[in-house]
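Figure 6 in text form: structure in, sequence out.
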């Protein structure tokens, strides 16, 4: 009887293991894909959220590896920075300090489940927390609530979206939207990021640790504000959590390009993200400007 029980349990666990493997394969292809990749041959890195993603590998022409990630918070960037310091010689970091980067929203909208890949035991208060976040939660689909959402979206948007299969689904570029559409979408983004007047304490503390770590390791830290569209800028007005001020309070330089393309909607894919062509153009302007200013 006991043998039969253990046999049934073993069979059940085997099924769960296989099922988990298959689901993790889906997760790897649609969520983790490329996030766990970094080129350690560089000495300069760009750490940013989705605003840095359109710059792609164009930064590598200027010997800077783009280590940005969609929805990265300062907590994620801090983990990546620690990983870089442990594994290569880091001389320079370009860091996003946009108006929204200290938003309390970033406490929920981040990549802590993915950036756990870059952690070590010393990054956690206990070894138990490390094992749970780095291995159990990372590889076990059933322990990660976000994985469930990814799988649900995969089923809805990939498997059963016949419009996509037929190649007829498309998104309008930012310049093709009407003024009213641009204003509505921009206001929704502002409402999401600026629900309160007070910046996130967690994000602020993490940014301070990033600054302190760069100083301790003699790493040049340069703040970077990415271009935004005119519609978004007009609605945003003076709304900001002032991440750039934190750097300037430490006498660190900030390269401010948020008004660079205010009258060039063709450079954007939405209100505050460049498209790939915009990213390529911005990279050249960015590093040419820094070279002239001798920030580099």
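Output sequence:
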């Amino acid at each position: 009887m006991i043998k039969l029980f253990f046999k049934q349990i073993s069979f059940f666990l085997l099924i769960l293991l296989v099922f988990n493997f298959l689901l993790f394969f889906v997760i790897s292809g649609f969520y983790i894909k490329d996030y766990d990749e970094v080129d350690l041959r560089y000495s300069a890195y760009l750490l940013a959220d989705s605003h840095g993603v359109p710059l792609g590998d164009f930064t590598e022409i200027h010997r800077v590896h783009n280590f940005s990630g969609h929805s990265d918070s300062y907590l994620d960037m801090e983990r990546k920075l620690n990983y870089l310091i442990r594994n290569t010689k880091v001389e320079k970091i370009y860091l996003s300090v946009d108006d929204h980067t200290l938003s309390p929203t970033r406490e929920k909208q981040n990549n802590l489940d993915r950036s756990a890949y870059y952690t070590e035991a010393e990054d956690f208060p206990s070894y138990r927390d490390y094992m749970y976040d780095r291995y159990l939660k990372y590889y076990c689909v059933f322990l990660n609530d976000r994985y469930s959402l990814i799988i649900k979206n995969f089923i809805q948007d990939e498997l059963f979206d016949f419009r996509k299969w037929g190649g007829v689904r498309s998104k309008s570029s930012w310049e093709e939207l009407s003024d009213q559409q641009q204003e509505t979408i921009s206001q929704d983004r502002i409402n999401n990021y600026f629900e309160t007047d007070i910046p996130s304490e967690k994000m602020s503390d993490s940014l301070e640790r990033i600054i302190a770590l760069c100083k301790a390791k003699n790493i040049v830290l340069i703040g970077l504000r990415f271009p935004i569209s005119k519609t978004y800028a007009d609605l945003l007005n003076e709304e900001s959590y002032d991440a750039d001020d934190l750097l300037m309070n430490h006498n660190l330089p900030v390269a401010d390009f948020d008004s660079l393309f205010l009258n060039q909607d063709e450079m954007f894919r939405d209100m505050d993200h460049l498209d790939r062509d915009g990213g390529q153009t911005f990279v050249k302007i960015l590093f040419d400007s820094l070279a002239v200013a001798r920030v580099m």
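Caption detail: Confidence is low (pLDDT under 50) at residues 160-170.
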